[in-house]
Design a protein that fits this description.
Layout: H1 2-5, H2 11-29, H3 33-43, H4 49-72, H5 78-84, E1 85-88, H6 91-98, E2 103-107, E3 134-139, H7 145-155, E4 161-164, H8 168-177, E5 182-187, E6 199-203, E7 206-210, H9 213-221, E8 224-234, E9 237-246, H10 256-271, H11 296-304
Parallel strand pairs: 1-9, 2-5, 2-8, 3-4, 3-5
Antiparallel strand pairs: 6-7, 8-9
């Protein structure tokens, strides 16, 4: 663990190792290749087998890059990470802070999501006492104690607070009551956890249950909501566009915020399909779309027959 935490190889060497890892993972081991290609075929039925295979190969290259980049995280300086993970429109979040609104950020397993924890370096906000906003992310503790400690060490390197999912609401209330403005990131592209039936909609051509807890917390705390739109212009370089979903979640209809996030995430994925994490079993448990509700007009029509 200590060796990994202090690894500071230059990126050109790391990407050479990533190229080797790609060959092993894709051609030798075939890690979850069946899952990846099935997910891609179901998500993009309009694409040919050749196009699907090309996206799959690019995904595994991205996956190998993600691994070596993540290992390097703990030895990256602010200057280095700002060069490789650029945030656009951070003034959207800073404006919310200035209005006395903390922020909840939807983001996903796109690009290098571990480097998203460097977001605080891009904020210019200071409150009346000169304090910056607190940046945090929700995480699910890993079963392996070693792995959990390692991941938490990586995610705290850029001064971001990690909050365990089970205590997320309580900790966010504590931040609010302390008078600190905060931005808390929720990775909401996983399967809903036990106890969360999810918001069911069509996502990537398939009926999908989306985590609904993120929207519920935003509504309860009345925090502004943004989406972190991640793209990858070149190898080892990512851009995150901070996009406002709503400043006033309590003024939106139930499900409206989650639906907006899903549509934005779809756009992100369709733009660069290979940067999303296709190897997770997102659609293992099938769901059905809810039956459409009859409109009052249709009821009146029935009554007059």
């Amino acid at each position: 663990m200590k060796i990994l935490l202090h690894l500071k190889l230059p990126f050109w060497i790391l990407y050479g190792l990533a190229d080797i890892a790609y060959v092993v993972i894709y051609y030798v081991v075939g890690y979850r290749k069946k899952v990846v290609k099935e997910n891609l075929r179901n998500s993009f039925p309009e694409k040919t087998d050749k196009e699907i295979a090309k996206i799959a190969r690019k995904f595994y290259r991205q996956f190998a890059d993600y691994f070596v980049e993540t290992v390097r995280t703990s030895t990256m300086s602010e200057k280095e990470v700002r060069k490789r993970m650029v945030f656009k429109n951070m003034e959207v979040a800073d404006y919310c802070f200035e209005q006395g609104k903390s922020v909840i950020a939807f983001f996903s397993h796109c690009g290098n999501w571990e480097w998203v924890t460097s977001i605080g370096f891009w904020s210019n906000f200071r409150d009346a006492e000169g304090r910056p906003a607190q940046f945090a992310q929700i995480y699910r503790p890993l079963k392996s104690k070693w792995a959990d400690e390692y991941v938490l060490a990586l995610r705290s390197h850029f001064h971001t607070l990690s909050i365990a999912k089970a205590s997320s609401f309580r900790e966010m209330v504590h931040l609010r009551d302390s008078g600190l403005m905060s931005l808390t990131g929720f990775m909401s592209d996983q399967k809903p956890s036990h106890g969360d039936h999810g918001y069911i909609t069509t996502f990537l051509n398939q009926p999908t249950a989306i985590i609904s807890g993120t929207e519920r917390i935003a509504r309860k705390l009345d925090f502004a909501v943004v989406y972190l739109d991640i793209s990858k212009p070149s190898r080892g370089h990512y851009v995150v566009d901070v996009r406002l979903i709503t400043e006033n979640p309590r003024e939106t209809a139930n499900g409206e915020i989650t639906e907006a996030y899903v549509r934005m995430l779809e756009t992100t994925i369709r733009r660069n399909p290979h940067i999303w994490l296709w190897s997770h079993k997102r659609w293992k448990n099938k769901v059905e779309l809810p039956a459409p509700e009859e409109s009052p007009e249709s009821d009146k029509t029935e009554e007059t027959k």
